[in-house]
Design brief:
Layout lengths: L1 H5 L5 E7 L11 E8 L2 H13 L9 E4 L5 E3 L4 E8 L6 E4 L2 E5 L4 H10 L2 E2 L11 H6 L3 E2 L2 E2 L4 E7 L5 E5 L18 E8 L1 E2 L2 H18 L6 E4 L9 H7 L6 E2 L2 E3 L6 E4 L5 H19 L8 E3 L4
Parallel strand pairs: 2-5, 3-5, 4-19
Antiparallel strand pairs: 1-2, 6-7, 7-13, 8-14, 9-10, 11-12, 11-13, 15-18, 16-17, 17-18
Length: 304
């Protein structure tokens, strides 16, 4: 793989990069190659070079990450190329009531831009840790809002480096799902359509949601946010709590005592601790309630 780095003289390429520096869980071993992407042209060039080496998304030769807020990387690391959409790939352009945002733009920065331009509808996402690309992949949401409500269209790059544009309908958004769960596309940018509002009202709503997060979520510890999807007819956090798992831990990984829907790293946890804890939670809840919880967290690398 080091030969690939020689073919990317203008791109920042790091060998054996520690993935714990790039995930919100703060765990994970090294990636063979870590490639920082700052533009669409750069991404297209990298993909074409990787394809020539037989490395594709579909065969696991490379993967794409943003802020790493919804992934769990194995302690053994990743024997692949990791493409990172850097902060430089984070432009936000305002056109009346539409924000055109690069995939690397954080949801917090998009929310601030909406506030600065008195546009309402994105307040729900202001406190979601992560970047736009990942949020679109999983149709991220919180507090009765989700990306499908505000995304008008998405520009994507396919496995061959070609660019396509899809409408919100074509994105097949549903609960924590999009077409990117089915096909090998990479998010480049999206048009976010909002409505005119008043800055004071928008700011007040953002503050209200921030206060609710601070009061109810273990923001002081590394985590990936809500660990499990909401099972139909239930709430994951309540099932976990009622199964007697509040505070349950494996190593330094723990079911948060503040919010049972969060698995947290209390300090020094290994990815294997977190993975094992997720499995134990699934097993216990299924035993007690006959409900198999499905993780929101995406596991990368070898765990078994």
């Amino acid at each position: 793989m080091l030969k690939i780095a020689d073919r990317l003289p203008k791109t920042k390429v790091i060998a054996d990069e520690l993935m714990s520096e790039h995930t919100s869980f703060r765990v994970g071993g090294t990636a063979d190659l870590f490639v920082e992407i700052t533009s669409e042209d750069e991404l297209k060039c990298v993909i074409k070079i990787l394809n020539l080496e037989g490395l594709t998304l579909s065969n696991g030769g490379f993967c794409v990450i943003g802020s790493g807020s919804n992934i769990l990387v194995s302690d053994k690391g990743l024997r692949r190329v990791v493409i990172h959409m850097s902060k430089e790939f984070g432009r936000i352009i305002v056109r009346k009531d539409t924000l055109t945002c690069d995939a690397g733009a954080s949801l917090a920065s998009i929310a601030r831009c909406a506030l600065d331009n008195s546009l309402t509808g994105f307040e729900f996402a202001a406190g979601i840790p992560g970047s736009l690309g990942g949020a679109i992949v999983m149709n991220a949401g919180a507090y009765d809002g989700e990306m499908k409500q505000v995304v008008e269209s998405v520009r994507l790059m396919d496995e061959n480096g070609e660019i396509v544009k899809k409408s919100a309908e074509e994105m097949k958004f549903s609960y924590r799902h999009s077409i990117l769960k089915e096909k090998d596309y990479i998010v480049l940018s999206a048009d976010i359509h909002l409505a005119a509002g008043t800055a004071d009202d928008i700011k007040a709503k953002m503050q209200e949601l921030a206060d609710r997060r601070r009061d109810k979520q273990p923001l002081e510890y590394p985590s990936a946010g809500s660990t499990f999807k909401r099972p139909e007819g239930y709430f994951a956090a309540k099932l976990i709590q009622d199964a007697g798992l509040r505070g349950f831990s494996i190593g330094a990984a723990q079911v948060s005592e503040k919010h049972c829907g969060f698995v947290i790293n209390r300090g020094g946890a290994k990815a294997s601790d977190i993975y094992s804890l997720i499995g134990e939670i699934q097993k216990k809840v299924n035993e007690v309630y006959g409900v198999m919880l499905e993780p929101e967290v995406i596991c990368l690398g070898e765990f078994e």
